[in-house]
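Project standup — Tuesday

K.O.: blocked on the structure for the chain from last sprint. Re-posting the sequence here as requested.
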Amino acid sequence: MKKCIHCGSLLGPTGKCYQCGNESQTEILVPQAHKRSKSLTIFMGILIATSLLWIVLALAIISAADQAAYLKVVGGTLIFSASMDLIIAIFILRLKKWAFDIYIGLTGINCILRFLTFDFISVLIRLSIVYLIFRHDYEHFA
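H.V.: unblocked you, prediction finished:
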């Protein structure tokens, strides 16, 4: 796309500016919008769908009439956790750096806790999934 070096508006097919009338043959590069990879979109879409499913399940647990008090705590914790996953997934789809940092931090904490319980295979699987999902999109987070 060619733009005028004087005023920044578009140039006509003859190289003459539509706004100021100056002739300019210089091309100004317009930055392209960042595009996320398909794998990131699919993974975050799955995360959003499962978060919504967990929220509905937690609401069903809380709304049950004859339940123990600890189930209300479990349901509330589940709603909070799923809501945070949902918010983080939406902002990762918008390529926000802070959401990416929070997701990586929470994944790290989860891996450390699983490592302490000697659950090595799930740690390796989770870390490899995170690496495969974000390896192409890391430079797009601003």
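K.O.: great, moving the ticket to review. The first helix runs from residue 38 to 63. The mean pLDDT is 80.
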